[in-house]
Prior knowledge:
This protein has helices at residues 8-14, 47-55, 85-93, 117-129, 164-172, 174-189; strands at residues 20-25, 30-41, 59-66, 96-103, 110-113, 134-135, 158-163. The protein is α/β, with parallel strands linked by helices.
Amino acid sequence: xxDKYRNFEELSRSEAEGNFAVDTRxxxxxxxxxxIAPHGGKIEPGTDxxxxxxxxxxxxxxxxxxxxxxxxxxLHITSARFxxxxxxxxxxxxxxxxxxxxxxxxxxxxxxxGGNPNLVQRLRDRLQAGGFEVREPHGHLxxxxxxxxxxxxxxxxxxxELSHGLRELLREDEVANERxxxxxxxxxxxx
Length: 191
C-alpha cells in the first residue's frame, strides 16, 4: 500500500493538530545509540512501547505517534523517506540507530535488516539465542537503502520488523517481552 504523504512536511501541512505527536527521551541519555519507532502509536501498534523499553533509561529514544481516531495508516511515511526533523537530527548525530517496526502476520517472528551487517548479525544471533524466530527480510523490509532512517547514522544501523503475532505476544507476556528487549539491548551494547 502506497503512503498517502511523500514526506513529513506534506503530512504536517495536511493533518489536523493532535493527529500525531513526537515522543522523545534524550536528556541525560547516550545519543550515540538511538532507538526509533517511526510508525508508533496507532500506525504500527506496540512499536513505540518496545522502542522505549529497549532504550531503557540510558539510550536516546524517539517515536512518531499516530493519534487519529481512525485511518492512522495515512500517517505512515516509509523509512527511506521518513524525514521528521527531530528524528533526522538524532539519527545523523548517532553512531548506530535501531528502528522498531510492525509487520503483518499472525505467526510470531521478527525480521532483522539494516545497513550495518555486524549489528544485524549480532541482533539475529541474540534474538535466536533468546528463543525468537528470526526470518530474512525481503524487499524494502531489508532496510538497505542509505536514506532509510536506520542508516542515517555514522556507521549505519539496523531495523526490526516484528509480526503482529509477536507484538501481541510481547504485549501479553511480560517475561517474553523482557527477554526480547534484553537480547536486543545486549546486541546494541556489545559493539
